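#structure-requests
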Amino acid sequence: MRIELESAGLRLDRGQILKLRDGAGSTICAREGTVWITEENLARDIVLEAGGCYRLRQPGVAVVHALGGEAAVRLS
């Protein structure tokens, strides 16, 4: 398993997940690759391609999953 913390964000290996707790209001941007995001108590999931961003809406746990290959995300 490899998670690299870069000044501009995180790099995830294929299939690797990142759990965020109580991140409501935070924004996740896909810098490279594709990521799948699911939030606790939210019926729909989000898939972001490179260049796409999504603002977390729910308190609780959000999971960010690298799909199909390596991915890089920025959190703000």
